Amino acid sequence: MNAIEEAPRTRRGGRGARREIRTAIDTKMLPALKRRLPLVEPMDGDQIARIDDASMAILEDVGVVFRDPQAIADWRAAGADIRDDDRVHLDRNLVRELIASIPESFTYHARNSANNLPFGKDHSIFVPMTGAPYLRDLDDKRRGPTLDDLANFHKLAHMLPALHSSAHHIVEPMDHVVAHRHLRITYSSMKHSDKTFMGMTTSPKNAEDVMEMCAILFGADFMEDHPVVTGNCNGNSPLVWDEVMLGAMRAFCRRNQPVLCSPFVLGGANTPASTAAAVAQLNAEALSALAYTQVVRKGCPAIYGHYLSTVSMKSGAPMAGTPEISLMNFMIGQMARYYRIPWRTSNTLGGAKTFDAQAGYESASTMMATLMAGANYIWHSAGWNEAGMHCSMAKFVVDAEQCAMGYRMAEGVKWDDFDEALAAVRDIGPGGHYLGHPHTQARFQEAFFMPELFDNNSIEQWMAEGSHEITERALNHARNLLKNYEEPRLDEGVDEALRDYIARREREIPAVDALNDEY
Amino acid sequence: MNAIEEAPRTRRGGRGARREIRTAIDTKMLPALKRRLPLVEPMDGDQIARIDDASMAILEDVGVVFRDPQAIADWRAAGADIRDDDRVHLDRNLVRELIASIPESFTYHARNSANNLPFGKDHSIFVPMTGAPYLRDLDDKRRGPTLDDLANFHKLAHMLPALHSSAHHIVEPMDHVVAHRHLRITYSSMKHSDKTFMGMTTSPKNAEDVMEMCAILFGADFMEDHPVVTGNCNGNSPLVWDEVMLGAMRAFCRRNQPVLCSPFVLGGANTPASTAAAVAQLNAEALSALAYTQVVRKGCPAIYGHYLSTVSMKSGAPMAGTPEISLMNFMIGQMARYYRIPWRTSNTLGGAKTFDAQAGYESASTMMATLMAGANYIWHSAGWNEAGMHCSMAKFVVDAEQCAMGYRMAEGVKWDDFDEALAAVRDIGPGGHYLGHPHTQARFQEAFFMPELFDNNSIEQWMAEGSHEITERALNHARNLLKNYEEPRLDEGVDEALRDYIARREREIPAVDALNDEY
């Protein structure tokens, strides 16, 4: 089915043999996507101004609660109007002045500089899903994940060309106490891949640990003017930011590392039942946190974020792939570009319990919308299923191939060989075929994308090969990738320093861990 | 799961009870979509001109083969340059002059005038798939279809709100001889639904029969200035139109009925391995047939069509949902609008053998692209699987719901209650929730689409309900729809006349039928 399976067996074992097979797989990372396809922009200038005005009015009149004494003190010093202890009313001029210092673009650094990513403006990157408390494993069995499972996802992220990051806790390593997990997760991201990664923001102290580990890997001085890690901070919509998220945000900002400022939107439940008004509220929430990053450290990179779903009014369940989510993505893209701030959205979301057709529809609809919306940081790009409750090994590799396909589409139309190809039309003429033409022979590899994980053969051939549905084919592919994984070299001194740091912190941090009971 | 299953059981039997349940289902057809969402247009004016010029040069220099003596005679009379017996070289001025008389828009009439459709410009309609030699039935079993199976698909098309047509041979009724099928198919379309439908073009004589049956249903005079049926004529790419298709085309044009002029593109096999050049060739092919419709009858409506796939260079199999197909759709939409001709594309294509995640990805990617491309006639919008080899009952109803979701997205953002919804933000303030707010209560039904066939519940609830994947849920939905089907009234005299016509023609047409052996 795929290139690995077709590769001839060789008697030579070890690294040489693996390298031979790997040349057939192609694990070379695609550069950050540079979008050339025009975006879908449903709002005209007046409508953008209307959302902006509504959001600013919310910030001025309704205010945003920052449930955190330090943030309130910071805001007071910055000249904000604080009422009822923790309700921050922000004048629109203050907001505009603050967000003006957020960089429109920057380079997101990886430990292997070949994997550095230009970030913002017309660039997009794909980042795997994170945060799943369960996985569907290589046997498609749903169970609690371990640190080894997480390592496998990091290895796959490292090998799949369209994924630009190993992220962080793709799945929760339930075999480690909660209090120590952030250390093991961060080490796994750093160790198993030399692409960019994310940093845990589960508490201010955990975020500090991530900063220290990044300092070991990249150097503290280097971090002062080079973004090397991204962290996510969710808002509690409507209009609340809490102490944990704000503390983690400060830990990142102080070290000049970018935070995704992500209102957590369940449209209709924690926003009005209106697409446009939900965007206005979300925009106000995002702006308030983005502005705060600049209070903490002026000029620090920051990313306009959100988690977007709409809620079923029958069950209260979050939905994905729905039309209003697409529309909100288009609109939010316009707002982020209006403010000249890079932005993050979510890809391949869905509520299916298995990797069935529902999962396919939801993921593809979401991906097409996020690409047409022009998001810079396309998170949850692989593996997400069951409303984020599990990460699926099968879906992980299929989604990654879908990202490669979306990447190709977003690059736009290629005209470089147009005249040459037209000459072929004259050569072939009516009723002929092009398969043997020199232009076809020279160009077919790049001309039309050939997915490995979609089966397009006849049903007879498909049956002869075992009647495998996509889940089974994808799991075979994942197994083959893992079999051929080669760890990217990490400097031994750095590795030892990271392990020493973890050992020290695990001695310091009490292992008491109520949450671990669920494992 | 869906409204029907939740509807309380009633002891009253018969039509009354069915009507009661049907109010819960909502089978009212959505009007033709009026698109307000901006389209994706990858070409600037210069690039459009480049494609146009390349296509015109192909028509002038390479020529198009019309394998049909009548067409050659017609072209000669129209002033075309004929070489090598049947190779028609068309001057660009002649082409432009001819296509100028194609109406940019018209009303597509149904036998129930409430189901008439404005057609062209910013309107889009969804038409089910057609032509499947197999079906996956209500038990998801793949088998040869019968006329009863076809009737069931026509009934579903009648009941599913986002489908605007009952099409024609959604599946091939293998229990009837090929020579008589077109009569039974047309009658089934007309009888089981009062939406618009399609007419068979399997031969010039079959097309004449369709015209006669339409004349019985609508009146021959009415047809003279009202489109009541659409037919599809495929080209043999590269650059050939054959006798069967051209004869059928003439049968439609003479009665002023619109034909879809559809080059059949297998990108890389019968076009150059280049997205832009493939579009130039396809455009030349479509223009040559569109021009010919105006030679047959000036002012006759006609539709710019195509069947689009790219070919796997590994196996020669057609692929779907690939990035280049999306790009070609965007480009062709621009070309059709440049010529001010309504255009047809294909939806929900794919090569999956079952209704697995592959089918979902392929269908949703294709649907998003066709909507963003702005197609007027979105054919193959329900049921397509296995590269068109089977129509799936389960997929049929899921695709139709996806069309309803795409419809909502393409309508764009609604601003009508923006200020009212913003007032709710002030009412609720930070940390509250909107579920009980009067605005939410008043608007939630329309605010956010709630798919019936996607399961967004928790895994515990899903398991308690039987762990049904989408195929099973969709088949339940299809069964319930069919149980509650009510036939739309057809005038008894018209019905009798149609049946008389069929009986007469079945006496006249020999029932010899080699193809029927495969049933």
UniProtKB/TrEMBL annotation, chains A, B:
<protein>
    <recommendedName>
        <fullName>Methyltransferase</fullName>
        <ecNumber>2.1.1.-</ecNumber>
    </recommendedName>
</protein>
<comment type="similarity">
    <text>Belongs to the trimethylamine methyltransferase family.</text>
</comment>
<dbReference type="InterPro" id="IPR038601">
    <property type="entry name" value="MttB-like_sf"/>
</dbReference>
<keyword id="KW-0808">Transferase</keyword>
<dbReference type="InterPro" id="IPR010426">
    <property type="entry name" value="MTTB_MeTrfase"/>
</dbReference>
<keyword id="KW-0489">Methyltransferase</keyword>
<dbReference type="GO" id="GO:0008168">
    <property type="term" value="F:methyltransferase activity"/>
</dbReference>
<dbReference type="Pfam" id="PF06253">
    <property type="entry name" value="MTTB"/>
</dbReference>
<dbReference type="GO" id="GO:0032259">
    <property type="term" value="P:methylation"/>
</dbReference>
